Structures are given as structure tokens and as C-alpha cells.
Sequence to fold (303 residues):
Amino acid sequence: MSSVRLILVALALTVTVLAGCAQKAADTQSATVDGIDVAPTQTTGIIRGIVVDTAVRPVAGVHLSLKAGDKVLTTDSIANGGFGFQGLAPGTYFITAAKPGFNDVRTSADVKANDAAPPLVKISIEPNPASQPFVESYVFKGMIECSGTFVVVGAALCDLPNIAAPNTTNDDTQVHYQVQRVPTWVQSEMVWDSTQALGTDLSLMYSYGPESGCDDPIYLCDDRVDGPSPLLLAAGPKDIQKVGIGNSTDIYIRVFNTGTTTSQGLVGATIEQSFTVYTQVFYGFQPPDGYRFSKDGDPVVPS
Fold:
């Protein structure tokens, strides 16, 4: 084979390889994403993208949001990091990507109407160890030595002189937890074996004072649940500030006698009643709906 012919063959191969690479790059820029089914219309466009970490690994469960007119559209990335938006008017949109344990990221994307293959939006999020999700667990084993509820006035049958703070004695019925920072979710579950007819129902409370907005001049304010064992009390994102945790990072738990269901809580007495309160403090995430420590055990922390 002549040298000229060899050169021509080499050039032909080079052109073919370069064309293949260019096509592959073009496919990557406008690639579809498995599991993301979005489509444009004659008047609207789409955004299709993936979220990866700094090691270029797909990240699932990233919350993505953008403002479209007077609405905020949201979605979460799936297992392969993919996400998508559709029904967007032409224009430039700013996408915010957020996930506990990572720094928030904001990026932009241009949308054209009737464009089924827009450039892929690639978002890289950086881990932030300080905001990694975790759980703190506490166990409080308490005892009501003697507590009661009196008809109408609510004074303690076992402590009638203490009118300023009814239903309280020197029992081991309250505990404070100083948590590391403002949590995302707090959940307490109280269990006990009742041995007395007038003490079947108890009250589990998150209590707070004036520094958290309580306007009662004498008593603490409470978020509470009443009834027989077990009792479940939770404070989520909307309640954290109200129960004082958001201002002082102090979780104050109190337990009292409530009376009985048949007396609608108006009459009751509890003597020598032990109980246990299991409390989980969630940072950077919240448990799934229906989660209970007594049933499900330790919560699963997202990776």
C-alpha cells in the first residue's frame, strides 16, 4: 500500500472517530434520563437534569425547586440522580437543590417551547459534614409518687397546698434535654403498665415559658397528649419554635396524672406509677409517617 493511500485511510479513520465522539457529546448534552418522563408542548418547555456529588456519583432524594410565575414547583431526584420539570413558559429559571448533609446549590436553566431535547442540567452538590443527618436518643424512667386531678379546680389531691402549680409533687416526673442545635423533629413515646383504676390515663407534655411565646402569667404553656399507654408526642418543623426548642434548644418534658376516660379527665388519682419516655431528636431529617420507637426500633438515618 502506498504512503499516500495509508495517509488517506488514516484521515478517514480519524474523521470517523471524531464524528462518533462529537455525536456522543451531543447525545450527552441532550440525553434523556431514565425514569424522568417530561415532554414539551407547542407553548411550553422542559428541564431535564441530574444531580451528582463531588465524586460524580448520582445523588437521590435531593429536593429541587424553582419559581414559575407565582408558583413554586418542586421535585426530588431519583436513584440515578435524575429530575425533571415540565409545563414551563419559555425563559430562564433558577433551580435550588437542597439535601440534608449537603450545601445548597443554585443554578440556572434556559427553557424553550417545543424543545424535546434541551441541554442536560448538571448539578453538583458538595457534602457538608456539619449538617449531616443524625439522631440523638434519650430514655427517661420516671415515677409518679402521688398525683391527682380534682373536679373543677384541678388541684392535686396529693398536694392541695401547692395551688400555684397544681398536679405537681416532688415526683420524678420531668426532665430537661439540652440539645446540640435546633432539631428538625422531636418525638417522644411514653409507655407504662397501669395498676390502678383511677390512674389509667396520663399526660405527656412539651412545656415552655415566656421566652418561647408563652403568655400565661403563672403557668408554663404545654403541647400535650392525654390517654392510656402508649402516648406519642411529636414536634415538627411548624412546632419547634412554639415549644421552645427553637429559642433555647431545651426540650422540657413533663408527665402528670390526667384522670380517667370515663370521668373525661375531671377526676383521677395516680399513686406509685412508673413510666418510661423514649425521646428521639432528629437533625436534618424527620422519621417516616407512622414511625414509633417501640414498634420500629432505632430510626434509619439517611445516607
